[in-house]
Amino acid sequence: MSGGAPKEVFALLAPKFEQQTGNKVKFAYAVITELREKLGAGATADVLVLPAPVLDSLAKDGKVRADSRTTFGTVVVSVVVKEGAPRPDISSQAKFRDAMLAARSVVHATPGKTPSGTHMGKVMEQLGIADAMAKKIILKPALDGGVQLVAAGQAEIGIYPASEVAGVEGLIIVGPLPGEINLEIVYGAAIATDSAAPNAASAFVKFMAAPENRFVWKEGGFEPPTN
Q1: Does the chain have fewer CB atoms within 10 Å around its N or its C terminus?
Q2: How far apart are CA 176 and CA 190, in angstroms?
């Protein structure tokens, strides 16, 4: 079970893992709050791939093995527009604020459902433009098609983790949010305590974190882990 950020990376690496090991991988993707609800309702998985704070919480609750925790990388939040559209100036916090106010529509994940969505809700408040943006903000996680709204021209600007927009056809990545208002999301994996296949789960985590696969994570929008 995984949040949406590593989806494109797994799409590239999972077939290689299956070919090399003979293990078959079945992914279940959902926004973070939905994954936690599913786990609370008794859903099971062999490996959980989530932001580090969520994994830490699950380890405290006994849902994952703390000693299996592995960091895959860090992803920041980026701004995207439709290919061919003008690129807004987001070179500073003030310029980003102006770009938001000038935009016809802006889409990002729903606050409370994903780390980036929650962060963007706070950023709009911090910049003092929450009320001004209320009527033109579209709340839709990337997993639910938010990124595609930008590619289709139905939203002028999208704001999502870089890994959720890397390689998406019809989009141009303008760049990351200015440093002082950006968010670094550390993603990792841990093996579930009730895994039915702990050996295969361990092999999966090790394969995904292997140095020879680091370039795939890099191309997928992730920076190398720092720990």
Answers
A1: C
A2: 28
